[in-house]
């Protein structure tokens, strides 16, 4: 089999062995959930409930306040205790609905399966996805219905389902493809109909040969779907790199996948869309990998949105030693946390806990001009130059060197022998540039 890829990238150890063979476990329902009203890119939701209200599973509790937004639903049945701002990790605070579970797990009365997909129009499919609260499950949390609502001039011909899962340690998507291949394929078919795409691709890295075989086994010869095998390389699962590898198209600078006729969705998103269509149940849970050197028994868990992270860790046997760092997501693009009391949100693909030695941040030294960051950059940028402009507060120069095109994969920082804070300083530049652009627009 010919393994496809893109120019650039790096090869960190995949560190997936602790959970790659662990079947997905259904975690017990939490006694209390903390559900943020903003778990997505875009406008936060407005609360539809107040303290002492009784709610059921799947009941809308957050109403979107814009098109680029996604509704939020109750993930347990019970009583609303609070509607109040709370820290949700990564230095962020959001309005949250705190629900005390009654243990009954009763579904909201309006939840029913949808009619057969052949009987639904494209508009009805997009509305179903929008009402379900679907966002990108790979971690980006961009509202899915927005991706599936391109302007008339942007014709989508290809849907790519991202099964690369190139982040080290994470295995949730891998297990999902092994355990629910027919649902992943059905989700792809639903997405294809939503935008009238003629071609579907499920892209999987070579280190998941069992998933490649399982998906191939479940695809009918009549389906306009193919499996693309990818080289195991980071960041193979990034949208632009995935498109380059699969269909040999390059998304223009500042552009979107729809500009080249492509929409990319995560494996988890495809599964959830099929699950919602089959059951009517909106996005109330997700699969999360819990692993790392400080986790007693690493696992892949199906958990309710809003479950405190400490509950997941306790379900995995607790900490084997005091953690030096806790990360939401993967080690390359995830965000370090200062507490394990924050809730699982729609984008929490992983919870990693590392020991004190692994958490140490090396002191940076002067750049030795080795060019490893340039060679490894999947966007063909000059990370060291952009970083230097950022550190010297020359943001216009950083913009001129295409700082905004950075996908923040962290490849540059990983390969830097001088341990320069390349990614961090580029993020600062991007934030400063975008803030200036917003002021100019006003």
UniProtKB/TrEMBL annotation:
Record keywords: 4Fe-4S, Cell membrane, Electron transport, Iron, Iron-sulfur, Membrane, Metal-binding, Repeat, Translocase, Transport
Superkingdom, natural source: Bacteria
NCBIfam families reported in the protein's UniProt record: PRK05035.1, rnfC
Protein localization: Cell membrane
EC number: 7.-.-.-
GO BP of this protein: electron transport chain
Entry-linked PANTHER family: ION-TRANSLOCATING OXIDOREDUCTASE COMPLEX SUBUNIT C
Protein name: Ion-translocating oxidoreductase complex subunit C
Cofactor(s) required, per the database record: [4Fe-4S] cluster
Quaternary assembly: The complex is composed of six subunits: RnfA, RnfB, RnfC, RnfD, RnfE and RnfG.
Topology with respect to the bilayer: Peripheral membrane protein
One GO cellular component term: plasma membrane
Location of the 4Fe-4S ferredoxin-type domain: 357-387, 397-426
Residues bound to [4Fe-4S] cluster 1: 367, 370, 373, 416
PROSITE patterns given in the database record: 4FE4S_FER_1, 4FE4S_FER_2
Major place of residence: membrane
Free-text remark on how the cofactor is bound: Binds 2 [4Fe-4S] clusters per subunit.
Cited InterPro entries: 4Fe4S_Fe-S-bd, 4Fe4S_Fe_S_CS, Ion_transpt_RnfC/RsxC, Nuo51_FMN-bd, Nuo51_FMN-bd_sf, RnfC_N, Soluble_ligand-bd
Pfam families: Complex1_51K, Fer4_10, RnfC_N, SLBB
Region Disordered, annotated ranges: 1-24
Role: Part of a membrane-bound complex that couples electron transfer with translocation of ions across the membrane.
Binding-site residues for [4Fe-4S] cluster 2, renumbered to this chain: 377, 406, 409, 412
Enzyme class: translocase
């Amino acid at each position: 089999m010919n393994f496809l890829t893109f120019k650039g990238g790096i090869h960190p150890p995949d560190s997936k062995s602790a959970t790659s063979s662990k079947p997905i476990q259904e975690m017990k329902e939490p006694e209390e959930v903390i559900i943020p009203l903003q778990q997505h890119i875009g406008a936060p939701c407005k609360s539809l409930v107040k303290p002492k209200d009784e709610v059921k599973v799947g009941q809308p509790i957050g109403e979107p306040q814009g098109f680029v937004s996604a509704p939020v639903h109750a993930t347990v049945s019970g009583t609303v205790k609070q509607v109040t701002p709370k820290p949700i990790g990564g230095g962020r605070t959001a309005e949250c609905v705190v629900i005390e579970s009654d243990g009954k797990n009763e579904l909201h009365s309006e939840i029913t399966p949808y009619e057969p997909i052949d009987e639904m129009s494209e508009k009805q499919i997009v509305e179903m996805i929008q009402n379900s609260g679907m966002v990108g499950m790979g971690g980006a949390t961009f509202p899915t219905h927005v991706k599936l609502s391109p302007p008339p001039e942007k014709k989508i011909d290809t849907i790519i389902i991202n099964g690369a899962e190139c982040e080290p340690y994470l295995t949730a998507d891998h297990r999902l493809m092994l355990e629910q291949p027919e649902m992943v394929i059905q989700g792809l078919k639903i997405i294809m109909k939503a935008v009238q795409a003629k071609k579907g691709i499920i892209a999987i890295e070579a280190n998941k040969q069992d998933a490649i075989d399982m998906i191939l086994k479940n695809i009918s010869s009549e389906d306009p779907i193919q499996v693309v095998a990818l080289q195991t390389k980071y960041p193979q699962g990034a949208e632009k790199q995935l498109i380059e590898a699969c269909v040999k198209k390059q998304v223009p600078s500042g552009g979107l996948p729809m500009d080249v006729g492509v929409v990319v969705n995560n494996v988890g998103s495809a599964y959830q869309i099929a699950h919602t269509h089959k059951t009517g149940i909106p996005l109330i849970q997700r699969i999360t990998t819990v692993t790392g050197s400080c986790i007693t028994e690493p696992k892949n868990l199906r958990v309710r949105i809003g479950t405190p992270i400490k509950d997941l860790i306790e379900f995995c046997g607790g900490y084997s030693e005091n953690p030096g760092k806790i990360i939401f997501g993967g080690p390359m693009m995830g965000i370090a946390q200062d507490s394990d009391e924050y809730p699982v949100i729609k984008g929490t693909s992983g919870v990693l806990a590392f020991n004190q030695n692994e958490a140490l941040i090396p002191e940076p030294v002067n750049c030795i001009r080795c060019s490893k960051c340039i060679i490894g950059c999947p966007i063909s940028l000059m990370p060291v130059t952009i970083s230097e402009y950022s550190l010297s507060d020359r943001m216009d120069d950083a913009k001129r060197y295409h700082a905004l095109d950075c996908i923040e994969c962290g490849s540059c920082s990983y390969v830097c022998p001088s341990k320069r804070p390349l990614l961090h300083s580029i993020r600062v530049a991007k934030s400063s540039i975008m803030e200036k652009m917003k002021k100019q627009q006003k």
